């Protein structure tokens, strides 16, 4: 019985292109592979267009449109026409809307730095080597963010209203008069709610950045004799700068979008009118006066203000980083 010899590869000879390359894939398979990512992304892209891009485009288009109603309630006909920049002129001529933007700028100048400093200090304390039960306190500080804004505002309103607030009762017994809902204090009462709600959320962003710092950096700093304070000031703070910039930008945008807290506190705070914040002013024009053109113009102006403020902050931050 003879056995056929097994072919042995010849040494010293390079494999040809036909031997080394895989068989050419059919063109239809390549097309299917090219389409696969788009098919997987299609649900997200569809929702993104319908819930984000389309409302923005509709708002921009509506901001250049005016509606004329014939009759007392438009019963004789409703027509729309191109209004140019008339709606923007009306929005900027509204003293209440302009005052609300200034009010939110003051709010942001005070509240945003306080919240960023507070969340940074909490993150540094929780990530220090001597911190006890860091996971428990991390969850406790984050818990207020899980409370819906409506519920949080209602809970805090009980602590602001005279006759219901234990703080006001205790202060009154000591001869101190507290008015959390007065014209000069209600803005900072809202700032307290916002700070209580979002400090824990921003703290987790900073904590995530702290955890990404390599251990070798800490070990090198300790070898150089750095104590806990020196370590936080010269090592941790510079390395968590991207997280601080991100949380500050989010806070700037959120400041101009403030809506839920003042709308709910309207019921117990006479100092809060229908145009106390820019978003509240746009909401009032749209759903109380049915002036959707002016409301859309106000929404576009709010978005532009948020973009400009965020861009200026990022430009200043990048300039400092380069120095």
Automatic annotation (TrEMBL):
<keyword id="KW-0812">Transmembrane</keyword>
<dbReference type="GO" id="GO:0055085">
    <property type="term" value="P:transmembrane transport"/>
</dbReference>
<keyword id="KW-0762">Sugar transport</keyword>
<keyword id="KW-0813">Transport</keyword>
<keyword id="KW-1003">Cell membrane</keyword>
<dbReference type="GO" id="GO:0005886">
    <property type="term" value="C:plasma membrane"/>
</dbReference>
<feature type="transmembrane region" description="Helical">
    <location>
        <begin position="104"/>
        <end position="126"/>
    </location>
</feature>
<feature type="transmembrane region" description="Helical">
    <location>
        <begin position="295"/>
        <end position="316"/>
    </location>
</feature>
<feature type="region of interest" description="Disordered">
    <location>
        <begin position="1"/>
        <end position="27"/>
    </location>
</feature>
<dbReference type="Pfam" id="PF00528">
    <property type="entry name" value="BPD_transp_1"/>
</dbReference>
<feature type="transmembrane region" description="Helical">
    <location>
        <begin position="239"/>
        <end position="260"/>
    </location>
</feature>
<dbReference type="InterPro" id="IPR000515">
    <property type="entry name" value="MetI-like"/>
</dbReference>
<feature type="transmembrane region" description="Helical">
    <location>
        <begin position="38"/>
        <end position="60"/>
    </location>
</feature>
<feature type="transmembrane region" description="Helical">
    <location>
        <begin position="186"/>
        <end position="208"/>
    </location>
</feature>
<feature type="domain" description="ABC transmembrane type-1">
    <location>
        <begin position="101"/>
        <end position="313"/>
    </location>
</feature>
<protein>
    <submittedName>
        <fullName>Multiple sugar transport system permease protein</fullName>
    </submittedName>
</protein>
<keyword id="KW-0472">Membrane</keyword>
<comment type="similarity">
    <text>Belongs to the binding-protein-dependent transport system permease family.</text>
</comment>
<dbReference type="InterPro" id="IPR050809">
    <property type="entry name" value="UgpAE/MalFG_permease"/>
</dbReference>
<feature type="transmembrane region" description="Helical">
    <location>
        <begin position="138"/>
        <end position="159"/>
    </location>
</feature>
<dbReference type="InterPro" id="IPR035906">
    <property type="entry name" value="MetI-like_sf"/>
</dbReference>
<keyword id="KW-1133">Transmembrane helix</keyword>
């Amino acid at each position: 019985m003879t056995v056929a010899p097994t072919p042995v590869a010849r040494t010293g000879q390079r494999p040809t292109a036909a031997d080394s390359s895989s068989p050419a894939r059919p063109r239809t398979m390549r097309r299917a592979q090219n389409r696969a990512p788009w098919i997987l992304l299609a649900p997200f892209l569809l929702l993104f267009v319908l819930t984000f891009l389309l409302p923005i485009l509709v708002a921009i288009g509506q901001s250049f449109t005016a509606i004329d109603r014939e009759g007392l309630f438009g019963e004789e006909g409703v027509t729309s026409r191109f209004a140019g920049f008339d709606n923007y002129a009306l929005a900027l001529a509204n003293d209440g809307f302009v005052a609300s933007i200034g009010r939110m700028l003051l709010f942001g100048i005070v509240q945003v730095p306080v919240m960023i400093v507070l969340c940074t200090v909490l993150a540094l304390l929780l990530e220090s080597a001597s911190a006890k039960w860091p996971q428990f306190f991390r969850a406790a500080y984050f818990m207020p963010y899980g409370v819906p804004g409506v519920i949080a505002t209602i809970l805090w309103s009980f602590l602001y209203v005279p006759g219901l607030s234990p703080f006001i009762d205790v202060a009154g017994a000591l001869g101190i008069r507290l008015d959390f809902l007065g014209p000069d204090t209600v803005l900072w009462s809202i700032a307290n709610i916002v700070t209580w709600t979002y400090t824990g959320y921003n703290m987790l962003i900073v904590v995530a950045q702290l955890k990404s710092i390599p251990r070798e950096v800490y070990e090198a700093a300790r070898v150089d004799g750095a104590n806990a304070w020196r370590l936080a000031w010269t090592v941790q703070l510079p390395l968590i700068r991207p997280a601080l910039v991100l949380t500050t930008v989010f806070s700037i945008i959120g400041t101009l979008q403030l809506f839920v807290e003042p709308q709910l506190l309207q019921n117990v705070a006479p100092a809060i009118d229908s145009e106390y914040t820019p978003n509240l002013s746009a909401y009032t024009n749209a759903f109380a006066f049915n002036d959707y053109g002016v409301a859309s113009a106000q929404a576009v102006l709010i978005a532009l203000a948020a973009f400009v403020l965020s861009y200026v902050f990022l430009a200043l931050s990048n300039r400092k980083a380069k120095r």
